[in-house]
Design brief:
InterPro entries: AB_hydrolase_fold. By secondary structure, the protein is of the alpha/beta class. Helices cover 18% and strands 15% of the residues. The strands form three sheets. It has a five-stranded mixed β-sheet with strand order 3-6-8-7-9. The protein is globular. It starts with 51 loop residues before the first strand and ends with a helix.
Length: 231
């Protein structure tokens, strides 16, 4: 598979002449646990600590800095989908929404925080990305933080239900079937496909009564979550 050679030259005195080759993991040896050197001025939201495990099930869904945890989104009577959302957002200002899906470990809190970090970098250091429509560097971000709503759906499975992360009346799936559009295995005999659930989220976002200024919804994901976003 060809490897991109993304040369990102930094003009600051401390990083002058250095570039990244596209293998940015070399700068990140602690599992996404800090900012890249040229964004060190931006505070980093670390991954929340969670009890449980990928195979044995997560015991709880953690609170995340800067996010509210929504456990009231009912897609059917008695069937709630838990998800993270930007804390205290003003729906009248939201122009874009980002929905981020986790990978096989179902660690929705991690990737929600990573998208938060990316938005913080963009709004704080807009010069670190090509922000202008013509691709040239910009000294100002084209989007403010309050115009973006981040959402992190929690695609939990039966192991998480048994371990305690999923409460009574909340949706869960068998193993990794959520990423392929399969039907839920609970609560009870509720059978709602993950694709139907995504439609419910998107329909809500494009409801002009609730989000009058919304223009764009971006679906992002890691690994299995990326596969889901492609489907």
């Amino acid at each position: 598979m060809p490897t991109a050679d993304c040369r990102l030259e930094r003009k600051s005195s401390s990083f002058s002449g250095q570039y990244a080759t596209g293998q940015l993991w070399r700068y990140n040896l602690a599992e996404d646990a800090g900012q890249l050197p040229w964004n060190s001025n931006v505070p980093f939201i670390a991954e929340a600590a969670v009890n449980g495990s990928v195979k044995g099930g997560w015991e709880a869904l953690p609170e995340i800095q800067g996010m509210d945890f929504n456990r009231t989104f009912a897609v059917a009577p008695g069937a709630v989908m838990p998800f993270y959302q930007t804390r205290a957002y003003d729906a009248s200002k939201v122009k874009g929404a980002i929905m981020v899906m986790p990978g096989k470990p179902r660690d929705c809190w991690k990737y929600t925080s990573l998208v938060q970090n990316a938005l913080d970098v963009y709004t704080t250091n807009p010069q670190s990305v090509s922000s202008n429509p013509d691709g040239s560097a910009s000294n100002g971000a084209r989007t403010s933080a309050d115009q973006v709503l981040i959402m992190g759906p929690c695609w939990m499975n039966a192991d998480d239900h048994q371990a305690g992360a999923i409460l009574q009346g909340e949706l869960y799936w068998l193993r990794t079937q959520w990423q392929s559009g399969m039907a839920s295995r609970g609560p009870g005999d509720t059978r709602i496909s993950s694709s139907q659930l995504m439609d419910a989220f998107i329909d809500t976002l494009f409801d002009k009564i609730q989000f009058p200024s919304l223009e764009t919804v971006v679906m992002a994901g890691h690994s299995f979550g990326a596969q889901m976003a492609q489907r």
